[in-house]
Amino acid sequence: MSGPSKRQMKSAARLYAVQALFQMEARGQTVEAVRREFEDHRFGAEMDGGALVEGDVDLFRALTDRAVNFQARIDQMTDRALVAKWPIARIDPTLRALFRAAGAEMVESDTPPRVVITEFVDVAKAFFPEGKEPKFVNAVLDHMAREAKPEAF
Q1: Rounded to two decimals, what is the model's pTM?
Q2: What is the CATH number of the domain that holds 87?
Q3: Residues 5-39, buried b or exposed e (16+ Cβ, 10 A)?
Q4: Domains in the chain: how many in total?
């Protein structure tokens, strides 16, 4: 049986980055502490009778580092994409973490913006399988991508 594909590992890294950013905010932990926990205990771990996918460590580290280092810029982009009455501080913390991870990939990587949007809409579907959040995420990320990389549109 072969292991996860490179694409699956990148997708898992994005999901783990959202979880890590959420945990950093909820628990007040540093990026180093959360990253160590995820890499040591979550990547490929057994959980509920199944194995978690091994994440792409380099992408996971890049997303968490960039989300922290460029948080003000990413949050400002997110605020501009949200309705005026809903600044980023008022949205669900999971969505806030998702926008920060996606923004981190948009502002400092060569990944095409449409790929980033698709991947993070899939992450939203994992967290909110029955809700309207994935459509909301798609709209916000589209706005952010057009600001971060207008040449791609």
Answers
A1: 0.90
A2: 1.10.940.10
A3: eeeebbbbbbbbbbbbbbbbeeeeeebeebbeebb
A4: 1
Whether 1 is covered by a domain: the verdict is no
> Rounded to an integer, what distance in angstroms lies between the CA atom of residue 78 and that of residue 73?
9
Q: Which domain holds residue 108?
A: 6-152
pLDDT tens by residue, 55-73:
899 999 999 999 999 999 9
Q: Which residues pair with 47 in a beta bridge?
A: 50
Query: Would you state the structure tokens that stand for residue 76, as one six-digit string?
Result: 């400002």
Token pair listed for 153:
């549109």
Task: Locate 24 and state its tokens.
Answer: 């950093």
76-111 pLDDT tens trace: 999 999 876 677 778 899 999 999 999 999 998 899
Kindly state the greatest CA–CA separation across the chain: 51
